[in-house]
Amino acid sequence: MNGQQGHHGHRGQDQHGPHGPRARGRQPYGKRVRGRPPVRDGAPDGPGADAGTGTGGPRPRRTRWLPSVRAWARQGAAPPEPPVAARAGSTVASAHGLTVRHGDRTVLHGVELSLAAGELLALVGPNGAGKSTLLAALAGDLAPDAGEARLGDRRCLDWPAPELALRRAVLPQSAELAFPFTVEEVVRMGRAPWAGTDAEDEDAEAVAEAMADTEVGEFAGRPFSSLSGGERARVALARVLAQRAPVLLLDEPTAALDLRHQELVLRLCRERAAEGTAVAVVLHDLGLAAAYADRAAVLDGGRVALDGPPDEVFTAEALSRIYQQPVEVVRHPRTAARLVLPVRDRRDG
Q1: How many domains does the chain have?
Q2: 30, 136, 252, 298: which has the fewest Cβ within 10 Å?
Q3: pTM here?
Q4: Residue 270: CATH number of its domain
């Protein structure tokens, strides 16, 4: 099923529901608030910087240093143009006949997929289905063997790194740092692409807001390396949110999190989508995908097997076949949300 027909961003219009945005008093790419300067050119990759997704296989295109317009100016080149906010429901990222091979194994087979402004798209499927590889290709971190991934009006691989960093923010599965940066310094790395632009004035606000939203402010001064896995994951997400890019690509952001923070992360994704950001998130929890996503693309064997609203594509028959595990799909008695549960034998006693 094509999930684009009159569906993009429909939840994003709900400003008053349980997943609606909080009042932020800002627009994602415009408001100017005087703040402190960001980490300057040459800031090393922090968690979620343009560092690939660790999916293995062919060497991805990696950006080891977050670029900024000042770097371009030093090279005598014209600075990149900041992105213009896309109209809600318009396609901002897409895959066309996308094929990726890892050695003699084809990981993605001619994938067709789109992501719209104001939409929260969940990429789900069994292990090895190609979810992270697809996300890496959409980010421009992985060159396909055939077909293309597009961001805006051009192929992802045709964007220069400084312009790419203004247009999409990527959260990889793992978040590692080789230097003893504090939590606040890591989050501030997300502002590096905007150095020298009008949006530089938003740095202090963007960093503070991202840390508050992800609940990492209380350990802002601690070394990133001293944090637990779940705390690191939230700091990595804060860094991506601080970047304030119009496209968010998140690879398993809830994997290391407890129940409370899994819900927190998906609420933040829902809020960003309601504000007009295009959000694609790789998830293993089908319940979270059903509760929060506008659309779900279910990958199986490197192909998009199902694509549409979770209420339509999350059926017991289809999911049982794809996951090779019997499941049942039931409605929550109070909220009517879809619950995807494995079929288990009853425990006596």
Answers
A1: 1
A2: 30
A3: 0.80
A4: 3.40.50.300
Backbone angles phi, psi at 272, to 5 degrees: -60, -40
Phi, psi (deg, nearest 5) at residue 148: -155, 155
Region of 97 please: left (phi>0), alpha (psi -120 to 50) or beta: left
Per-residue confidence (pLDDT) for residue 178, from 0 to 100: 72
Band of the pLDDT at 56, cuts 50, 70, 90? Answer: very low
In a domain, 346, yes or no: no
Range of the domain at 86: 11-315
Distances in whole angstroms, Cα of residue 112 to Cα of each of 295, 304, 325: 15, 8, 26
Burial class (CB in 10 A: 0-12, 13-18, 19+), 320: middle
66 within 8 A of 193, measured Cβ to Cβ: yes
Classified as helix, coil or strand, 284 is: coil
Kindly report the average pLDDT of the chain as a whole number: 83
pLDDT tier for residue 349 given thresholds of 50, 70 and 90 = low
Q: Are 120 and 269 spatial neighbours (Cβ–Cβ below 8 Å)?
A: yes
Contact (Cβ atoms closer than 8 angstroms) between residue 265 and residue 254? yes
Q: Which is more confidently placed, 337 or 150?
A: 150
Residue 323 included in any domain = no
